[in-house]
């Protein structure tokens, strides 16, 4: 259900269950977690096979859960999303086609979300009397703002790529999201990792600024300024 290939500085992770729109059961979630944790490349590119990014949790699994199993399944999805968020490098989500429920939540855990013009997004759990429980209730309002997050989650409405761009759910709409992963992989990998660590830092602002200074100093010491005259600034 999950395929991985290394392509230079990019690890391509493919959700590969197109007949079910790449819906995720326990096995697929564990495979995705393993794929992310085993990657060593500067960039992980996460996308779906076929005409969908990811339909979220496999409803056949969800419908079979009791209370304890449901909590365990949610914890597994949260763990996978956290592994994506904490990856030591950049994770780029290439959303082509439908992202629904848990699929949106996995994209939210990525550092960069890029959509094709055919991408659509929806938090459809409310229509089934549920809600996404893979960390989306925290990440969605942080990324798009509380108002947009409540609108999406409480209505279950579907938004297209341009609407997702306007609200900040994605940062670009392009024909080839993989090209964005290659673009990110072309930068200095040390700077990439330090920048992500600083921007993901949830410590107090004073501590963030101290770590920011230290990271900047490390990068300056390691930098090659041979082409500095080609730039006006940083």
Automatic annotation (TrEMBL):
One of its GO terms (molecular function) is catalytic activity. It holds the Pfam family ECH_1. Belongs to the enoyl-CoA hydratase/isomerase family. This is Enoyl-CoA hydratase/isomerase family protein.
């Amino acid at each position: 259900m999950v395929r991985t290939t290394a392509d230079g500085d990019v690890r391509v992770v493919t959700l590969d269950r197109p007949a079910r729109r790449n819906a995720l059961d326990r096995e697929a979630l564990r495979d995705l977690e393993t794929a992310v944790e085993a990657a060593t490349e500067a960039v992980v590119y996460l996308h779906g096979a076929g005409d969908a990014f990811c339909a979220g949790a496999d409803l056949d699994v969800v419908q079979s859960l009791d209370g304890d199993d449901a909590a365990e399944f949610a914890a597994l999805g949260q763990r996978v999303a956290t592994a994506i968020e904490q990856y030591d490098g950049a994770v780029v989500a290439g959303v082509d086609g439908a992202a629904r429920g848990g699929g949106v939540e996995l994209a939210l855990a990525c550092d960069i979300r890029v959509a094709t013009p055919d991408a659509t997004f929806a938090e459809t759990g409310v229509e089934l009397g549920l809600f996404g429980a893979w960390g989306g209730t925290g990440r969605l309002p942080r990324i798009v703002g509380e108002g947009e997050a409540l609108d999406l989650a409480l209505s279950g409405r579907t938004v297209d790529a341009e609407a997702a761009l306007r609200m900040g759910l994605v940062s670009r709409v392009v024909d080839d999201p993989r090209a964005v992963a290659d673009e990110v992989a072309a930068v200095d990998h040390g700077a990439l990792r330090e920048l992500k660590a600083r921007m993901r830092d949830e410590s107090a602002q004073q501590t963030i600024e101290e770590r920011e200074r230290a990271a900047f100093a490390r990068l300056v010491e390691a930098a090659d300024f041979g082409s500095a005259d080609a730039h006006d600034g940083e």
